[in-house]
Amino acid sequence: MVRLVDIAKRANTSVTTVSIVLGNRPYNVMISDATRQAVLQAAQELGYAPDMAARRLRHHGSDHRTIVLAIAHPIDGRLSLISRIVAGAQRQLHAMREEVQASIGVIQLIVETYELGQLQQLRGLIEPYWFNGLLITNTSPEDDEYVEGLTPSVPIVLFQRETRHSSVTTDGEHVGRLATQHLVDLGHRRIGLIYPDAASQAQEQRIRGYHNVLQQAGLPLGPEVVALGRNWAEGAYMAMQRVLSSIASERPTAVFTTNDLLAIGAMRAIRDWGLRIPEHIAVVGCDDAEFAAYHDPPLTTVHLPIEDMAARATLMLLDMIRQRARVPMQESFPVHLVIRRSSGPPNGAEEPTL
Questions:
Q1: Domains, the chain, with CATH or none
Q2: Which has the minimum average pLDDT: 99-103, 172-176, 284-288, 297-301?
Q3: What pLDDT is recorded for position 62?
Q4: Are 99 and 320 in contact (CB under 8 A)?
């Protein structure tokens, strides 16, 4: 068992300093960043893993052991997505409630936020003092590069990513192919694309699927327009306005958006332009968010089993924490197209005069 005195000796500092750093407690003395990093590095090299359950027992006066699972989600406004992930995790924990009570005790589920591109600043990735397992969602390309070189301090599962770590994901290219092929099969020959700036790995895969279908069908690409900014619906609204500002004969008769929030923004722009969906422009999204079925018109989209993926990721984390599984565990989930009224064949409807 690694003691605080062992860490203090390796970091060349005092036991009091080690206790303050590892406990992350307020303190009146100044501890330099260099000393703090030396303590953390020494703790990691020596394999120090504090008993977080014991800490919580002392703090709460409980007889239960506590395991803390965290969901790391970027601050990007996608509340519809994180709510589905949390719902899936809670569903899994509810299904295991008897086993949890008998063999684990208490499981706390928390959400940690981080800025896109700044995943390295998330507490707990290299300091095993905050939670026992971590589900990481919606990373940027910069975050992906960081995490691929990371030796995490606790079990982690990545969401919607191809990675060397444990993961739950879908075939992103297949997602893009499903949506685009649906529009091609309806008879559309000018199919546009709207996607977010700083597109994630999953977004890039969907774009490739779109490209593949059009190339195989011998159809031209684009127009391809970027939705700028963190507010994806607003960014897609402005992007679609730019598309509609082009010569009418060059406008697409259909648009694929790489997620449903983008689709909502694009559809609002189409309506504000005085056009009808799908008579003038068909729209297909991706995710099958809860609001997709209740929009006007209801949105055709590719269904991603977000809740099932989150449930599986939760079970993966618990299995890794209890050392019941060999890592990495990687699972890809099937997707399917949900056809609603936002997509239809091009019918040559006359556009209104503005």
A1: 4-45 (no CATH), 52-170+306-332 (3.40.50.2300), 172-305 (3.40.50.2300)
A2: 99-103
A3: 47
A4: no
